[in-house]
Queue: 2 jobs
Job 1
Amino acid sequence: MKTRIFFERIKAVESEQRIAALAVGRFMEATQHTPLLLSNHGLRDRDVRECQRHLEGTYVIRLFAEFEIALRFIWQHVRHSPNPPRTQISRLMDAMVARHHVPTDAAQAAHDVREYRNDLVHQGPPRTLLTIAESRSRLCNFLKFMPHYWS
């Protein structure tokens, strides 16, 4: 198996976010001309605006989930373990940093995405803002230090 698959899965999440953002934008335009598109489903303009406001964060959460899947899978297969590790993702990231010589700046950038994702999931307004493109770039930069192929 090749690590490239995980890069493709992460990139696909970013593409889905772009499609969803475009679709929500077009839907907002359509509802201005045809308000029944919302009211027939028990929705309001405000609901669509909130969807649009949270869209990027929602996809950053998905993006990080793909990254976490990748790390757990790589750890399991490189170590020839029958089960993926059940450790916290921050500890797994640190273990991968040590094992695969990930530079400090790349590790910290990926941890920043993890913290941003944690803020989105657990604490509401994040302390820092990262776009999905920045998040993808940071996570893929971390992954490039992982083994590129294994059986």
Job 2
Amino acid sequence: MNPSPHHQRRAFVLTLVSEPGVDAIKAFRALLKFALRRLGLRAIDVQERALPAQEDERALAPTMEDSMSAFSERVRSQKKGFFKVADLEGGKELTLTISHLDEEMEIFKETKDILNFIETGQQLQVNQTVAEWLIDNLDDDPEKWPGKRVTLYLAEYEYKKKKELGIRLKLPPPGTGDGTVPVRPRHEVPF
């Protein structure tokens, strides 16, 4: 019995080239894990090959999309964990593109919603204030948030008569477009 076209397994061939200074094996293993766990794509054949000089030069050539140095991008993208107040101290603001929301994740025996971004491995724990802002400003459906740009900043709040700083969100400053960046749909695969 032949599977329908929608259920037919497909195969792709892709050539990847590591940027200078990147641990290529480590990065490739991480990519394979991500492809399987998040996208449902399983690697069945991998071959390492030397690039002809012409292809190597093409891979290293800067593109119009390179808005920051490869070093800067690599360092910033490798930072992991959750954003902390210290990341934004001194009036620093950070405008990022939402990748997706992980809902009801179990973290240190607590259930949290986690906001993920395209430009960084860092994530934002979504508290009640941030959740309400997202719903009021982006949409009440988190499936519509990918591609939306938000600016992280610090704001003061009061808790038990003590003033603290917390991470808040706002819309990006004027002149940065409509705040939307195209994002490919993310397909979850059960583990």
